[in-house]
Write a structure and sequence with these properties.
The protein is α/β, with parallel strands linked by helices. The chain folds into 2 domains: about 1-240, Metal-dependent hydrolases (TIM Barrel), CATH 3.20.20; about 305-385, no CATH class. The chain contains 14 helices and 17 strands. Strand 1, helix 1 and strand 2 (about 35-40) form a beta-alpha-beta unit. Helix 11 crosses helix 12 (about 320-335) and helix 11 (about 305-315) packs across helix 14. It is globular. The two termini are about 30 Å apart.
């Protein structure tokens, strides 16, 4: 079976998250998106873990609410400010990890805890409880492994050989990461890192796996690519849309080439700090001029949420307008969920909507969109190709925070 999974989100107990990030809302909204397995996020937070325990168990590591499966996950910040994603096998192992980390962090203070451990130490604890682990949003210039380290070994030491995956993040894709030799054998994950449950946040990036069932054990085998289980598709934003794709000033957002950044010693003409973009950081780390995709690497489909595509097609800047919500609701009601519409439906199945919306979906599927890269903390901008049926010229994507 094919399983769509978003494995990195946050609960209402994390900083800067929606109060609606509760399990019942997440289950309902994940179904509308077409996500069959969703990470709980924040499973080390005592109150959130208590909420998770109230769900119906499928097995030791998988739980169900309204036909949506949940698997135990958490994100942890280490002493070097690097974020790590963990996928845990059971409630008992989550509780064991809580006990192990209690003397290094106040786990009740934030759903995404900060621990006084380096990457190697944290990885050892993760391995000891049977968790899968890897770096979160590995390339972004804040709180990411490659922001502070040049290699997996620099970050994880001898535990680097136990890293199961890397999460690409919003400003990178498989083409970026497959220029780095040390990542050739790792599975790439694309997750939303959602802080609210609404359609433009939840599952804005997701993974599709070939498994026999939506369970922890099947997910583990798929990430490790064992016994025929494997990832078969990564879906994510075009990396140019990310806030840190190109090197740019964090004050005025002026973009710079890497050479200009170095000549100006990372200071903008306005006096602001220039933040190194993901594209330039990858070029610094790259072993290959062009990506070398290993045989196991699945396709990467560059998409944005359906509501954002509808807004582009209708020529409006706000994806939360009634017009956008009405079209989105009609399409989801007719075809079942957003993933079906964006990825799987034949074009003929989209005849119930305006031609401009249908043309926009096709343009994304075929990679014919026009991208204006983001940088310095400002999101990129997308245009539909010339000749698309767009009634207005206002085509900005609203923030994906």
């Amino acid at each position: 079976m094919h399983m769509n999974a978003d494995l990195h989100i946050h609960s209402k107990y994390s900083a800067a998250t929606s109060a609606r990030m509760d399990l019942s809302t997440l289950a309902r909204e994940a179904a509308k998106k077409g996500i069959g397995l969703i990470g709980t996020g924040d499973c080390l937070h005592p109150k959130w873990l208590s909420d998770i325990k109230a769900l119906k168990p499928v097995d030791e590591g998988t739980f169900v609410a309204n036909d949506t499966r949940f698997v135990l996950t958490c994100e942890i910040e280490d002493s070097a400010r690097v974020h790590h994603l963990l996928i845990l096998p059971s409630i008992s192992k989550a509780e064991e990890l809580q006990e192990r980390l209690a003397s290094f962090s106040n786990l009740a203070s934030d759903g995404r805890p900060k621990v006084r451990l380096n990457g190697e130490q944290l990885a050892q604890h993760a391995k000891d409880v049977g968790a899968l682990f890897g770096p979160s949003h590995a390339f972004t210039p804040w709180t990411a492994m490659y922001a502070y380290f040049d290699s997996l070994i620099d970050c994880y030491g001898p535990m680097a050989s136990h890293v199961a995956f890397i999460e690409l993040g919003l400003s990178a894709d498989s083409d970026y990461a497959d220029r780095i030799a040390e990542l050739q054998n790792l599975t790439f994950l694309t997750n939303s890192d959602a802080h609210s449950p609404w359609p433009i946040r939840l599952a804005r990036e997701f993974n599709r796996f070939e498994v026999d069932a939506p369970t922890f054990e099947e997910l583990k085998q798929a990430i490790l690519r064992k016994n025929g289980r494997k990832p078969i598709l990564n879906v994510g934003l075009p990396p140019e849309e990310g806030k840190y794709n190109e090197s740019a000033c964090i004050r005025c957002y002026k973009h710079y080439s890497l050479q200009m950044c170095q000549e100006r010693k990372w200071r903008c003409t306005c006096g602001g700090l220039i933040k190194k973009g993901v594209r330039d950081r990858v070029s610094e780390l790259a072993d290959y001029e062009k990506p070398r995709h290993p045989q196991h690497r699945p396709p990467y489909l560059r998409l944005i949420p359906l509501a954002e595509i509808i807004a582009l097609a209708l020529g409006v800047s706000d994806s939360n307008t009634k017009a956008v919500r009405d079209v989105w609701g009609t399409m989801v009601s007719a075809l079942g969920n957003e993933v079906t519409i964006l990825v799987d439906a034949d074009i003929e199945q989209l005849n119930m909507v305006d031609e401009s919306v249908r043309d926009a979906i096709v343009a994304f599927r075929e990679g014919r969109i026009i991208l204006h890269p983001g940088g310095g903390g400002q999101y990129g901008r997308v245009e539909l190709p010339k000749g698309s049926r767009v009634p207005k010229s206002q085509r900005y994507i609203s923030d994906f925070v």
